[in-house]
Fold:
Amino acid sequence: MTGVRPAGEDPDGLVTVGRFIDPIAAELARSRLESDGLICFIQGGGLGSLLPTATVFPILLQVRAADADCSGVDLLRNA
Structure:
């Protein structure tokens, strides 16, 4: 992709802070981080409705690189 910098160089770049198979668990984690004021993105969450074997593909929970060291993200990583 042209113009995309690594997350370490771009504070607005996205960092994956969680990988899930269960879409409900991913949504709960997203909700928890958003309650701390973080902007979160879920990647791959819609595959389950398209492919019956989509559990092979993880659902990624991502936050801005600048927010990756927040206490809510640390709590999620240690859960």
Remarks:
- The beta strands are 14-20, 40-43, 59-64.
